[in-house]
Amino acid sequence: MATPPPVPFGDEPQVLVVGAGPVGLTAANLLGALGVRVLLVEQHTNTSDDAKAISLDDESLRTLQLAGLDQVVYPIIVPGTGTRYYGVGGRPLVHARGTGERRFGHPFKNPFAQPDLERVLRSALDRFPHVDVSFGTRLVELRQFPGRVLATLASDDEVTQRIEAAYVLGCDGGRSTVRDQLSIPMRGRSFPDDVWLVVDTVEDPHDERYGMHIGDPDRPLVIVPGREGRCRYEFRLRPDECAPGDVVSFGLVRDLLRPYRDIAPRQVERSVAYTFHALLADRLRDDRCFLLGDAAHMMPPFAGQGLNSGVRDAANLCWKVAEVLAGRAADALLDTYDTERRPHAQAMIELSVRLGRVVMTTDRGRALRRDLWVRAAMLSRHGRRYLTEMRYRPDTRVRAGAVALTDGPGRSLTGTLLHQPVVLHGPAYTTTRLDDVLGSGWSLLGIGLSDDDWQAVAVSGLPEARRVDVVLGDRAPRRRNGRAAVADADGTVEAYLAPLRGRLLLVRPDRLIAAVFTPSRVGDVTRAFGRFLPADCHRAPSPTESKESGSDGSVTVTGSASADTSTPEHDTQGAHK
After folding, report:
1. How far is 302 from 281, CA to CA, in rounded Å?
2. pLDDT in tens, the chain (577 residues)
3. I want to staple 299 with a disulfide (CB 3.0 to 4.6 A). Which of 352, 357, 389, 575 is the partner?
4. Which residues contact residue 482 at a Cβ distance below 8 angstroms, ignoring those fewer than 6 apart?
5. CB burial class (10 A; 0-12, 13-18, 19+) of residue 458?
6. Partners of 505 in the beta sheet?
7. pTM attached to this predicted model
8. How far is CA 268 from CA 176, 250, 293, 307, 352, in A?
């Protein structure tokens, strides 16, 4: 294969994204929306026809909103209401549907067909003249140099090309070429004896807007109805029924589906026997290369978080890459990708394994004990909330990375996702979603602040942010001194933010609350974020203030005796997903 010389770096993409599945397509859209030059390559000749992933949660829809995609995605999803669990004999146990509130502005759990999602995400990239897409192109080799990555690509007809990029995002799945090129091992375990059959059907009678997990030990089963008569069935197979990778007979499919529907061969879109894995890459960053999605972590399907974890990866990383490329952040910011994503990915893997072991057990005694425990828990308010609101999910709060934990009210919100209520905004007091006011970058929300309070942070050295007044007390949201303003539309803003009156919320582009502080503590927060800013923006701490940096990258701000250390009760359940 002849290898031409590389194209000059100035004409090359800033970011090479390898893999055009849902995670790679999401990353390319996020980067494109931030003005980054992107080349997206995919070894297959088109988007996938296989319906693998099946559910998008409210956080993922919010990420797609950030990329300007939620309105084109809504027509292909079923706005869902969570999951119903059934026990021995198919008897109902609990409907886990979240809090019932749209804390992040979108429905809680939403079935979809992956081929539809990939087509929508691929078409959306046509918005960006600075994003190129090349299907039928595979990665052959990666070599890293100071300031750049040299990638060798090959097309289906074996024509090769060498390109340079500032960064490479490996979104190329469980058999990741990027991960192999970087010699990054994955740790964890596989489950070769747990064989499942996935069957995607059409013209199905199920019209429920929730998934059904049927934990009958005689035949554990998952049913997820989709749009327009599509439905996913997943059956736990017995040892003699079908091996992973074998051709699945229509007779087996028909026999398993018989209690739920009649089926003809033309109504089966896909049937595959598979096993699953619980694995996490040793590192998610290797110099200028990053791993996302299944290239970074693989988990059993029982928590419905495989794809959603990959979308979280993209949401966490893409804005950081854009900030560094634009010269607004130092390389240290990119280290926080692993710091912030690894703990949650590991926790989600462990939850998925536990759910499979408990909910989908074939041990009748364990199943009966599980059902008894659930029914007993449902008798108490605490138990009902734990199960119906899915409080057993891992806490998504970021405790180390690009966050600054200050003393006082609001500390528990630092590292959590900002809620997205509907707010009043603009001279006509129209209702709109909060994110649509905040824009695509950093934002600084002042909760009931005066002009004098804002003056204290006029020149602070914080990341450049859009400043927004959060007006409390049923007052009009009037724009003042160049600041946007929002007010409560339905009571949710007051309930969520009124306890923080007089404080500021520094919100990252991925809508994570990076810090909560009073105007008098702005210097502390500025110094805490100094290591993430370019060298010419650093400021030295004053003799009366300091920051403590943990070995895990966390930053805890301490300092002046005037700090308010009282901590009133505040609902932090938004940190649980």
Report:
1. 20
2. 333 344 344 568 999 999 999 999 999 999 999 999 999 999 998 988 877 888 899 999 999 999 999 889 999 999 888 899 999 999 999 999 877 677 888 988 899 989 999 999 999 999 999 999 999 999 999 999 999 999 999 988 878 999 999 999 999 999 999 999 999 999 999 988 889 999 999 999 999 999 999 999 999 999 999 999 999 999 999 988 999 889 999 999 999 999 999 999 999 999 999 998 999 999 999 999 999 999 999 998 887 788 999 999 999 999 999 999 999 999 999 999 999 999 999 999 999 998 888 888 999 999 999 999 999 999 999 999 999 988 888 888 898 999 988 877 778 899 999 999 999 998 888 899 999 999 999 999 999 998 888 888 876 677 888 999 999 988 888 888 888 999 988 888 989 999 999 999 999 999 999 999 998 888 888 888 888 988 765 443 333 333 444 444 444 443 333 333 333 333 433 443 4
3. 352
4. 467
5. exposed
6. 445, 516
7. 0.88
8. 29, 9, 28, 23, 27
- Residue in the block written with tokens 């909910």: 359
Residue 94 one-letter amino acid = V
Using CA atoms, how far residue 81 sits from 52, 78, 107, 417, 570, in Å, is 20, 9, 7, 21, 26
Check if the beta carbon of residue 230 is closer than 8 Å to that of residue 116.
Answer: no
Helix (H, G, I), strand (E, B) or coil at 28: helix
- Contact predicate 415/403, CB 8 Å: yes
Cβ-proximal residues to 274 (8 Å cutoff; 6+ apart), any chain: 195, 196, 197, 198, 244, 245
Sign of the C-alpha dihedral computed for residues 344, 83, 95 and 355 taken in this order: negative
Helices (H), 450-506: 451-455, 492-497
Q: Which of 443, 465, 567 is nearest to 513 (CA)?
A: 443
Residue 454 DSSP label: H
